[in-house]
Amino acid sequence: MAVLRRSLIVRLVGMSLLLLLVVQAAGFAVVRATIDRNARGQIARALDTDENVWRRLLEQNADRLRQGSALLAADYGFRSAVNSGDEETIQSVLENHGSRIGAEVTALLDTQLRLRSLSAPAGAGDFQAAVQQVAPLLASHAQGSRIAVIGGMPYQFVMVPMRAPVVIGWVLMGFPVSQSLADEMRQLLSVHVALLVTAADGSLSVPVSTLPAEPLALLRRSGIPSGELDTGQGVLLARASPLDTVGGEVQALLLRSVDEVVAPYRQLQVLLAFITVAGVLLFAMGNGVMAQRVTTPLRSLLAATRRLSRGEYDVPLEHLDRADEIGNLARSFDKMRVDIGAQQSEIRRLAYWDRLTGLPNRERFREAVLAATSGHGGAVQTLAVLTLDLDRFKHVNDVLGYAFGDRLLQAVAARLREQVGAPQDMVARMGGNEFALLLQGADAPAAHELARRIHQSFEEPLVFEDQSVDLSAGIGIACWPGDADDADTLLSRSEIAMYAAKRQLSGALRYDPALDLASAQTLSLLTELRRAVEHNELRLYLQPKLALHGQPGLAAEALVRWQHPQRGLVAPMHFIPFAEQTGFVRQLTLWIFEEVARLLAAQEARHLPLRVSVNLSTRDLLDPELSTRLAAILARHGVQASAFCLEITESAIMDDPQRAEAMLNRLSQQGFKLSIDDFGTGYSSLAYLRRLPVDELKIDKSFVMGMQAGEDDAMIVRSTIELAHNLGLTVVAEGVETAAILERLRTLACDEAQGYHIARPLPVDDFLAWQARQG
């Protein structure tokens, strides 16, 4: 009980906490992702501003340099020196003026943009080359500036014309894009700046940077990042701003820290985590208290179930005064306890007695037989068991209804009681319309005498109101100890004898070992027949048909044989009837149809004008999918339906005329030729026969073989042939055993004949050889 309690509490609290933690974890994940996404968006917008400010700083520096260049170009003394060609004065003015405005490079170019004088730091050769590259570009954009890479350092250049009053030369000035400009950006906007310079030879350098040592070293190793720089201590979002450059490539890299933006929100997340932990603890305590209140009354219900399992139905339950769902459950459970107690007595009564007839049931009868065969109360004595099954009882139920059938069973039970006089004997209802009688101390003659009296009592019809019912039954008898060694076997063999009596219509029949052997053999054959198709044990045979008046074409009837691996060739009469009873005949029909289609499609038979007849059973004809299955086989082998003749017996048609007619119409529309087999042995009317789309009548062999014995059969054959011809049908006679019968059929204008006189059923290869000999 305590284990159940702890388990339920743990599950209730655990499931609640699990759901709460899942929700909180999902919330944390969403909040964290949202903060990160918003921070990156904020940094991206800030980097847009940073990039604009950076370019504006470069433009301001260019304007300052351009103003200084304009002052120098407008200086009268400098222009006079230029006109007079005083190179020493020109060089001195360039150096002094450049130092005043902070320009590291000053130069004078003639009107053809050739360098006349240059003031530059050490490495003047590099500066001269850079001036020669930048000057033409600046001349075409007088108000612009240009950056050139000199010695791995970016320099910003401007150039203004010198007029007197026409252009007599150009003044060019340049200053390095230095660390001071990056520091200014850092102070103004708190953004890191790094200049990445790619020289003409492909080497990468970072001459200007506000980054700390570790991120700067990572940047120099990895080059320009794809969008962010992970330093191991935090993530920097980067924006690369390329500059218009000569002599290499320069990109200004603007970087902002994600952690700096996210830091204020981290404290909020920590506070939220503390609140969540406190909430989980409070939630767990509340759930524990609630679970305790729920499981306490459930313990009393658990104890009640254990009392009920022991059959104690007189102890009322607790907590019936509660007004909540637990109280409702307790009251419902208590009502169930009372109802179960009342039902148990009824169950004990019904366990051994049949409610309808008041007779002992199968279980009670078996216990009585067990007690009698075990010799309780004295020496072992003989006894007999009679099992009785009413004939046509299902028909009574179908026609007169189940209520009438119940009254009939009650009347039968009363008559059987009248036939048993000894108090130790017993009449029982085994189920349905089956009854059993136990005769203690009786032998086989006494059992047969009782069976005779029962049959005699059934000769008087049962009358209910205005309805009279004639009764009959099959009775099986088994005696102990002669027919069985134990009670269950005795009951089983009594039933075997009863079913045999019903099949043989013999009234009463005592058990015989041959009956049991036949049943076992039948079951074995049916089981093996299902495997015969899979193991290719079936064989196709063909029995030729002979055209009596020279009609074109060849005809044969398809038959099946079973080559059993142990029993040899099994006759069709030993497995076809049982296949029809179990419905397996449909698989046999499809197998025959498939084999015939394969034969007709084969090379050795394709040239023959052969038509093969295949028999359809009642189950085949009533199968709604028959036409579809046959069409699929024809399509698979590429064979025409006109190469087949489907033979149907009259009885198969009359079992369900409407469904049979519908299926025959579909088959006829597909192109199959249809034949009525065993004509004359059924009960079909000529009016109904005219409605069927048949092409052929096949006279039953009993009439054909009887033509030699008397004129009655010959008259039936003659009339059938004339009737068929009048209906536009062809006629086939089967069972032709002699040449005289064959000639008689030819005289009567019969169209085709088959029988042992013509040829026996042959395997496929033998049939083809027989046809070749006939040609």
Automatic annotation (TrEMBL):
The keyword Transmembrane helix applies. SMART domains: EAL, GGDEF, HAMP. Residues 381-516 form the GGDEF domain. Residues 292-345 form the HAMP domain. GO terms for molecular function: cyclic-guanylate-specific phosphodiesterase activity. Residues 522-775 form the EAL domain. The chain crosses the membrane at residues 270-290. GO terms for cellular component: membrane. GO terms for biological process: signal transduction. PROSITE patterns: EAL (PS50883), GGDEF (PS50887), HAMP (PS50885). It holds the Pfam family dCache_3. The keyword Transmembrane helix applies. It comes from the Bacteria. Keywords: Membrane, Transmembrane, Transmembrane helix. This is GGDEF domain-containing protein. It comes from Acidovorax carolinensis. The lineage of its organism: Bacteria, Pseudomonadati, Pseudomonadota, Betaproteobacteria, Burkholderiales.
